[in-house]
């Protein structure tokens, strides 16, 4: 069989998370997975010492497949699997019992992990935590370091269509770069930020992130139309993410282009509002969505998971946001959730949050 396997042969069918709709199936080659996992492992410092990794992300997601399994195999690290599906108590037990030095997970997983650790106060001393799969706020990173006794936090950015990671923290990054960006562009990759007409925008200006290089998917399985939409003849991968490339080469996510809220002709990116709301002491987790509005087109709705034994009102949130956000960006509606709908890989599904409000709660304009 070895004689018939080539580096560019498809070896992996990776279903996308389906955070914006029906999942698609990008294809990856041996070459792409082998190289991305090796390079990601080095950025994660797996080559500097033996690490014991608590993997909270599932194997069927690129975070688990490429970042964790591939990285661990390349660099002889130990993988600890706390539970078949994410369970914060099982994760804490594993970190404590196995003396894990590294944790991998999504922002939502870390929110739940911190919440449980505040109650259990286990004697844990991991060195590094890696957050990916969705944007993390500076506030969350600070809470992670404080409550999980971390020396360092790292951020990664990527998508199934880029094999896994396209931006990632560098080993010697300072706290500002580690917590406020998704890291530095990956080795052997090209990136550019373009406007709606496809023209490159200046550094520091928001636009769509495009990626080109060895890790770009071979295409969507049995879906040539979507493949052609995603990757042009010039092989630039359209991520659908609104992104800022800083002067120093580090990147910041502004938000999903599809998630942008247009309120009375003004563009609002939910992540900016979420970052402010996350700083409220009674807020455990927040998602901001746009809901239909007869006059404005859309209104800003804050969907909140509240800290245990705490409460929050719309008036509280408006007071908290005053002076931190432009008035038109401040939420005009509040919805309280016990939990958010998630994909099996732990990503929050905003479109299902909107469906829940509109359908189950009988929201009308």
Short description:
It is built from ten helices and 18 strands.
Can you walk through the features of this model?
This protein is of the alpha/beta class. The chain has 2 domains: 2-186, Rossmann fold (3-Layer(aba) Sandwich); 260-360, ANL, C-terminal domain (GMP Synthetase, Chain A, domain 3, 2-Layer Sandwich), CATH 3.30.300. Helix content is 28%, strand content 26%. The protein is built from 10 helices and 18 strands. It has helices at residues 30-43, 62-75, 88-97, 107-120, 138-147, 175-180, 224-230, 270-277, 314-321, 350-360; strands at residues 10-13, 27-29, 52-55, 78-80, 102-105, 128-131, 152-158, 165-168, 184-185, 189-194, 207-213, 237-245, 251-256, 261-263, 266-268, 283-293, 297-306, 333-336. The protein has a 7-stranded mixed sheet with strand order 4-3-5-6-7-8-9, with helices on both faces. It has a 4-stranded antiparallel sheet with strand order 10-11-12-13. Strand 16 (283-293) and strand 17 form a beta hairpin. Helix 1 (30-43) crosses helix 2 (62-75) and helix 3 crosses helix 4 (107-120). The longest helix is centred in the N-terminal third of the chain and has 14 residues, at 30-43. It is globular and about 65 Å long. The model has no long low-confidence stretch (mean pLDDT 91). It holds the Pfam family AMP-binding_C. This is Medium-chain acyl-CoA ligase ACSF2, mitochondrial.
């Amino acid at each position: 069989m070895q004689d018939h396997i080539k580096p560019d042969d498809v070896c992996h069918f990776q279903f996308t998370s389906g955070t914006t709709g029906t999942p698609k199936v990008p294809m990856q080659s041996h070459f792409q997975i082998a190289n991305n996992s090796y390079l990601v492992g080095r950025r994660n410092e797996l080559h500097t010492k033996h690490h014991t990794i608590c993997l909270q992300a599932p194997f069927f997601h690129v975070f688990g497949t490429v970042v964790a399994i591939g990285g661990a195999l390349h660099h002889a690290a130990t993988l600890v699997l706390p539970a078949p599906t994410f369970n914060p108590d099982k994760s804490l037990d594993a970190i404590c019992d196995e003396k894990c030095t590294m944790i991998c997970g999504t922002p939502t997983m870390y929110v739940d992990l911190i919440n449980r650790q505040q109650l259990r106060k286990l004697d844990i001393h991991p060195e590094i935590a890696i957050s990916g799969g969705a944007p993390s706020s500076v506030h969350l990173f600070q809470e992670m370091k404080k409550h999980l006794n971390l020396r360092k936090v790292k951020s990664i950015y990527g998508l199934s269509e880029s094999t896994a990671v396209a931006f990632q923290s560098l080993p010697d990054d300072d706290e500002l770069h580690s917590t406020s960006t998704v890291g530095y562009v990956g080795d052997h990759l090209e990136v550019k930020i373009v406007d709606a007409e496809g023209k490159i925008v200046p550094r520091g200006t928001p636009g769509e992130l495009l990626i080109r290089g060895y890790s770009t998917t071979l295409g969507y399985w049995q879906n040539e139309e979507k493949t052609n939409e995603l990757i042009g003849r010039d092989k630039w991968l359209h991520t659908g993410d609104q992104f800022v490339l800083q002067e120093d080469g580090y990147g910041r996510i502004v938000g999903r282009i599809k998630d942008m809220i247009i309120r009375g002709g003004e563009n609002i990116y939910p992540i900016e509002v979420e970052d402010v709301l996350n700083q409220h002491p009674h807020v455990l987790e927040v998602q901001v969505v746009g809901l239909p509005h007869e006059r404005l087109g859309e209104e800003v709705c804050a969907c909140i998971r509240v800290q245990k034994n705490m409460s929050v009102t719309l008036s509280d949130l408006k007071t908290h946001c005053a002076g931190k956000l432009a008035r038109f960006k401040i939420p005009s509606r509040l919805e309280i959730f016990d939990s958010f709908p998630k994909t099996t890989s732990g990503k929050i599904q905003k479109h299902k949050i909107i469906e829940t409000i509109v359908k189950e709660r009988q929201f009308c304009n």
